[in-house]
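Customer escalation, tier 2.

The customer says the design service returned an amino acid string that "doesn't look like it belongs to this structure." They asked us to rerun it and document both sides in this ticket. The original C-alpha cells are below, unchanged.
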C-alpha cells in the first residue's frame, strides 16, 4: 500500500508544455504558503469571496494548512474540491482548483485559482485555466464548467473570455465584512473551450473510480 493508492487525488498530474499541475501534498504546502505571503494581489484589492489573504502573516500559514487538510478530510463523492499546485518552467507559481457538488448528476463544477503577483501578466493564468478545463472535459466527462470573478477583477474576467467562457449573469456577493460587490458569472462548454497546449495526464483511471465515474 502507498499513499496514492489510499488517496487517488495524489496521483493526478497534468502537464501542458512548461506548465505542471501537481497534487498539493504536505511537501509543497510550505512553499505555497511562502508564495502567498509574498503577495497575490494589491493590499487594497480583494479578489476572493472569502478574504483569506487578509489574515495577519502570523496566522495565514496555520489557516492555509488547516484549509488544505480540511479539503481532504471533507471529501465526498457528493462534494469535492480538486486543488493543484502549479509549476511553470520549474517554478512554483500558484494554485488551480476545480470544485463541484453532485458531479455524477450535474456534470458541472467551478474553477478557481490564485497566482503569485510576481507571475501576473505572463499568460500563466490563462494556461492554468485551459489545462484544468481540458482535463475536466476530456477525462472527467464534464458537460459545462463555471467560473466567477468580481467585476473589479479585470485580470480574472479577461482570462475567462480568453478561455472561451460566456457571460452568465451577475449577482451581489459579500467580500470583506460589511462589503458586497457585483460578481460576474461565466459558463464554459466543451465546444466553446479555447484550448492551449495539449495536456498529458497521469492517475486518471484510479481517480475516476475514486469519484464514482467508473466501477471499482
Amino acid at each position: 500500500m502507498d499513499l496514492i493508492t489510499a488517496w487517488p487525488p495524489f496521483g493526478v498530474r497534468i502537464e501542458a508544455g512548461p506548465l505542471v499541475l501537481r497534487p498539493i501534498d504536505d511537501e509543497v504546502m510550505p512553499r505555497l504558503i511562502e508564495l502567498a505571503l509574498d503577495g497575490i494581489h494589491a493590499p487594497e484589492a480583494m479578489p476572493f469571496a472569502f478574504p483569506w489573504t487578509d489574515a495577519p502573516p502570523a496566522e495565514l500559514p496555520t489557516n492555509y494548512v488547516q484549509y488544505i487538510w480540511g479539503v481532504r478530510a471533507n471529501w465526498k463523492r457528493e462534494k469535492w474540491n480538486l486543488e493543484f499546485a502549479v509549476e511553470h518552467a520549474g517554478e512554483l507559481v500558484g494554485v488551480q482548483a476545480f470544485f463541484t457538488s453532485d458531479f455524477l448528476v450535474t456534470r458541472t463544477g467551478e474553477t478557481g485559482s490564485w497566482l503569485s503577483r510576481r507571475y501576473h501578466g505572463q499568460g500563466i493564468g490563462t494556461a492554468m485555466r485551459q489545462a484544468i478545463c481540458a482535463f475536466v472535459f476530456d477525462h472527467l466527462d464534464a458537460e459545462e464548467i463555471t467560473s466567477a470573478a468580481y467585476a473589479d477583477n479585470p485580470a480574472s474576467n479577461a482570462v475567462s473570455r480568453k478561455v472561451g467562457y460566456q457571460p452568465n449573469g451577475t449577482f451581489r456577493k459579500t467580500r470583506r465584512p460589511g462589503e458586497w460587490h457585483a460578481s460576474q458569472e461565466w459558463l464554459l462548454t466543451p465546444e466553446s473551450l479555447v484550448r492551449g497546449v495539449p495536456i498529458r495526464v497521469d492517475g486518471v483511471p484510479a481517480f475516476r473510480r475514486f469519484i464514482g465515474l467508473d466501477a471499482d
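Tier 2 assessment: The sequence is consistent with the input. Residues 124-140 form the longest helix (17 residues). Residues 151 and 183 are 6 Å apart (CA to CA). Sent an explanation to the customer and offered a walkthrough call.
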